[in-house]
Design a protein that fits this description.
The protein is an all-alpha fold and 135 residues long. It has one domain (3-132): TerB-like (Orthogonal Bundle), CATH 1.10.3680. Helix content is 69%, strand content 0%. The protein starts with 7 loop residues before the first helix and ends with a helix.
């Protein structure tokens, strides 16, 4: 939804973060795969631009922690939305959300507000994605 604001380099790094987030609980679900493909489409990345570099969560969060607050908020919200996409919220996923929150110096209130918003809007997005055939 907000990913057009990212630079190409940020989009590629964000895609790496998404892959790490989807694997964090050891269950890279089909809905997460489809959601990542929706993100790739939204970001307008070509196959040549999609670079899966072996990185750690700490490396990618460190990269984004140097960006401005808008970019950090976009990354946080969109990553958290992916985590919630499969309807599960495991302890390892919760830890990743809190790790990103700490890396970006966000308050607990911001984290809670973002999660509440994601929980409200996700069902509508999923319905829309299904309606147009993206998932």
């Amino acid at each position: 939804m907000f990913l057009s604001a990212l630079s190409i380099e940020e989009k590629v790094k964000f895609l790496n973060l998404l892959n790490l987030a989807a694997n964090i609980d050891g269950n890279f679900s089909e809905i997460e795969r489809k959601q990542i493909n929706v993100y790739i489409t939204e970001m307008g990345l070509s196959d040549e631009q999609i670079i899966h570099q072996p990185q750690t969560v700490e490396d990618v969060l460190g990269y984004f922690s140097t960006r401005n607050d808008i970019i950090k908020k976009i990354v946080f919200v969109e990553m958290t939305a992916l985590i919630f996409a499969d309807g599960e919220y495991t302890k390892s996923e919760e830890n990743l959300v809190k790790q990103a929150q700490a890396s970006f110096s966000f308050s607990d209130d911001f984290r809670k507000h973002a999660i509440d918003w994601i929980n409200e809007i996700t069902p509508m997005y999923l319905k829309g994605f299904k309606m147009v055939g993206l998932i």
